[in-house]
Write a structure and sequence with these properties.
Elements (H helix, E strand, L loop, with lengths): L1 E13 L2 E3 L5 E5 H7 L6 E6 L5 E9 L6 E4 L11 E11 H6 L3 E3 L10
Parallel strand pairs: 1-8, 2-6, 3-5
Antiparallel strand pairs: 1-7, 3-6, 4-5, 4-7
Length: about 120
Amino acid sequence: MFIEVCKSKIHRVKVTGADLQYVGSITIDEALMNAANLIENEKVQVVDINNGERFETYVIRGERGKGEIILNGPASRKVAVGDIIIIVSYATMDFEEAKTFKPRIIFPDTETNILV
């Protein structure tokens, strides 16, 4: 049996930008991606703490060290710049493996989106 479990989580980051005219996705600072074990084009769930929105998109690598979290395309209508969000990715694995798997969860500073 296979189940889906939390693989990576960026807990509470501030949305720094929204670009409706972009093709779509979420741009995440490369340092945050690496710390959370996320890769470019990986599917993620975004949860907006301010308004309760939950949606899925994919990751685009942002410039390292800038703390950028930018929602692009239609997803930009579901958040406001300054909102606090949680970004989660999941992995499918064998039930027994999942029992011992430890997700990578990071807690950046919510003002700068930089790891402390």
